[in-house]
Design a protein that fits this description.
The protein is of the alpha/beta class. It is built from 15 helices and 36 strands. It has 5 domains: about 100 residues, no CATH class; about 180 residues, 3-Layer(aba) Sandwich (Rossmann fold); about 90 residues, Sandwich (Immunoglobulin-like), CATH 2.60.40.10; about 230 residues, Rossmann fold (3-Layer(aba) Sandwich), CATH 3.40.50; about 70 residues, Immunoglobulin-like (Sandwich), CATH 2.60.40.10. Helix 2 runs antiparallel to helix 15, helix 5 packs parallel to helix 7 and helix 8 packs across helix 12. About 0% of the residues have low confidence.
Length: about 725
């Protein structure tokens, strides 16, 4: 046993106070001669022994009370038979929350800054030979590959860290911490979790099971001590820019594009005129003011024009609160001066509108067809199937097969390679299709391109009762979002006279789970389906692109429909530019390229060499742990931008209350602290043993009650 306040043991000398009083009381009596005393001498002799035992027992109790009270105040701790742990080296791992909610501030410093200071203070506690490691919970990785002695190296790494991650990865972080402890040979092991403990992370739908966390902790022998250190609660008011949507995935130079930003108010304070601004490449474009009530959401709409080809960074920022990480959001838009499209016309005709691709050509290049001075973004070129070869695919992003009967083996191989390296393919049906060839070559096997097999014909050209309409609904597919606004065209006006039924046994309900239905006919048959093939995408249409099988080319929505389908397929040519933390940055590389320079958030610059992917050479960077804009510079080429944005689930700032946090600690066998002083006290108790002052205090109270009853008992027998 040891004592945390050993100097208070001097208070045990207080036992002498009742002893001295007792002795002084004995010395004050005087003898009085009484004639009848001889009549009581026999009774006194009988009870003298009992009286003496009772008096000595009462004196012992009165002496023990102040002595035990002093022992209680000295805080005794049981250490058993083991060596005192206070001077034993330990292995400490700190799990530090670096989600962007930790940017919440009290005006002088953020919770993350407090967390870093607390982590360093913990790791600097003696003994100095302890092994230390810090795991950032945003990506679940340690700041160093192995535990280190001393904190100077950790401090340098933490100086480069920012709380800009999305939801914390609790289980992955704990596994990383346990792996650090596994290689330790020190007798004591400890894990400290420093976080604001947001409810969504710890109690939400994606939160880990507590039994699983406890099982992870018990895998390590000896089982590490766990401390949950809660940072101060973030401010109750928070507005975030939740998402950015653009009217189309790719835009032409000097063509207008609509940027819609969704804002959400998670706080209790409402805004009558919240200021929201939009910038492109750092230059202000437009500012709007909108009302945003507590718990509500609102949209800000901006009209932008990109004046040059290449990638552009669009930023939307709300002038709201002191949590800057979610007050702004960035996305990357790509502006093109042209999109190359190759149309393979399966039924050519000298008269343009009688040709299979006649209406299609007008929809792809409306300005050129009308003789307008404006230039078309889509530059379409039409060839016959006999003239289609690998060379035709140069400088092309999308290929359209318009009622093409079949392709040769070389043509099929070239088209397959084109799609799997990022190209887009749009396949229209028609009366000239060789169904056996399509189903055998394009719709089955490991090299299949089509989402589904062609089955039997449906509908009738002359019987209007057997015609089908297009089912209108709120479209979720990016190629059809344009038509959620009926002013852009009502797809319900379309009528399909004849179509192929698409066999879903290898598609939506079958083995190919990547197939998506874009559009459906009123008879329940799919009209358009899409699937990913390698790095590219394929859209299969069950009807023809001319006016023989439908009235679609005669409807006003035909032009924007064809344009949106082509723009969507063209967007798959380049790897995505808008990413989440942890997703790799990938960009196409030319054959002569060797390396590029990537500027990361915080102006860190790294060299990115080219590497061979499945089918082409690319630049690839896997270190997108931080949110922000990354810029890839390749010699003699326009810089490419990539926007990495954390999930906005961290914007809901409500945290675990004290009871919920204690329940969590109890479930995983840990303790809860809220300050460094509380941690020190908890750590001292853990190192030095089990406190027993509560039991000593209970003994003092029991002795006081016993003294009271014993005194009353003696006084009753001795009136």
């Amino acid at each position: 046993m040891t004592f945390l306040n050993v100097f208070l043991l001097g208070g045990t000398l207080a036992f002498a106070v009742p002893l001295v009083i007792h002795l002084l009381h004995l010395s004050r009596f005087r003898v009085v001669e009484w004639g009848a005393m001889h009549l009581l001498e026999s009774l006194v002799r009988i009870n003298r022994r009992r009286f003496r035992i009772e008096q000595w027992l009462l004196l012992a109790i009165r002496c023990a009370i102040p002595a035990l009270l002093a022992v209680c105040m000295a805080q005794p701790v049981l250490t058993g038979w083991r060596v005192r742990a206070g001077a034993v080296s330990s292995s400490r791992v700190v799990l530090l929350d670096d989600s962007y909610s930790m940017q919440a501030s009290n005006g002088s410093e953020t919770n993350f800054q407090r967390g870093v200071s607390s982590a360093l203070a913990i790791l600097q506690r003696p003994p100095a030979a302890s092994e230390s490691a810090i795991v950032l919970m945003g990506d679940g990785r340690p700041t160093s590959d192995e535990a280190v002695r001393g904190v100077d190296a950790l401090r340098k790494r933490l100086d480069l860290c920012l709380p800009d991650q999305g939801p914390v990865r609790i289980e992955a972080s704990l596994q990383s911490g346990m792996s650090q402890l596994t290689h330790s040979t020190l007798p004591m092991r400890e894990i400290v979790v420093i976080s604001d403990f947001q409810k969504r992370d710890w109690l939400g739908p994606q939160s880990p099971q507590r039994e699983r966390l406890r099982a992870l902790l018990q895998q390590n022998k000896p089982i590490p001590a766990v401390t949950l250190w809660k940072m101060p609660a973030p401010p109750p008011n928070n507005v975030c820019v939740e998402s950015i949507e653009v009217s189309q995935p790719m835009v032409g130079v000097r063509q207008p594009v609509r940027v819609r930003a969704l804002l959400r108010n998670h706080g209790q304070r409402g805004y009558d005129d919240l200021r929201v601004s939009c910038r492109i490449d750092g230059e202000p474009v437009e500012t709007s003011q909108l009302p945003l009530a507590s718990g509500a959401e609102a949209s800000a709409l901006f009209r932008c024009v990109l004046d040059r080809a290449g990638s552009h960074v669009v930023e939307v920022e709300a002038d709201a609160d002191d949590l800057p990480a979610d007050n702004r959001l960035a996305c990357v838009l790509t502006a093109l001066d042209r999109i190359g499209v190759l149309v393979v016309n399966g039924d050519p005709d000298p008269q343009p509108l009688r040709s299979e691709a006649g209406f299609l050509q007008l929809a792809l290049q409306p300005f050129s067809g009308a003789g307008d001075k404006l230039s078309d973004l889509i530059q379409a070129r039409t060839v016959d199937p006999t003239r289609f070869d690998r060379g035709s695919l140069e400088d092309v992003r999308v290929v359209i097969l318009a009622n093409v009967p079949k392709l040769t083996e070389l043509q099929s191989a070239a088209l397959e390679r084109f799609v799997r390296t990022g190209g887009g393919l749009l396949v229209f049906s028609g009366n000239r299709l060789d169904l056996d060839w399509y189903n055998r070559v394009f719709a089955q096997g490991t090299n299949a391109l089509l989402p589904m097999r062609f089955a039997s014909l449906g509908g009738n050209l002359t019987d209007s009762a057997r015609h089908a309409s297009i089912v209108t609904r709120r479209f979720q597919h990016p190629a059809l979002n344009h038509f959620n606004d009926r002013r852009n065209g009502n797809l319900a006006d379309g009528r399909v006279f004849l179509w192929y039924r698409l066999d879903a046994s290898t598609g939506i309900n079958g083995a190919n789970s990547s197939t998506t239905e874009l559009m459906q006919l009123s008879v329940g048959s799919p009209l358009m389906v899409e699937c990913r093939r390698g790095e590219g995408s394929v859209i299969q249409v069950a009807t023809a692109c001319d006016a023989d099988w439908s009235n679609l080319p005669m409807r006003p929505f035909y032009l924007p429909l064809v344009q949106q389908l082509v723009l969507h397929l063209a967007s798959t040519w380049d790897p995505p530019r808008n990413l989440e933390p942890g997703q790799p940055i990938v960009a196409r590389a030319e054959a002569t390229d060797s390396k590029a320079r990537l500027t990361c958030p915080g102006n860190d610059v790294v060299d990115v060499p080219t590497q061979q992917s499945e089918s082409q050479r690319v630049y690839r960077f896997d270190g997108t742990r931080r949110s922000g804009v990354y810029t890839l510079d390749v010699q003699d080429r326009t810089p490419l931008h990539f926007a990495v944005s954390a999930s906005r689930t961290e914007s809901r700032l409500d945290t675990l209350n004290d009871g919920q946090l204690r329940d969590l600690a109890d479930a995983i066998g840990g303790s809860v602290v809220g300050s460094f002083e509380e941690y020190v006290k908890s750590d001292d108790l853990r190192r030095h043993g089990r406190p027993v002052w509560q039991f000593v205090l209970a003994g003092v109270l029991a002795l006081m009650v016993a003294e009271l009853f014993l005194a009353r008992w003696i006084s009753r027998d001795n009136p």
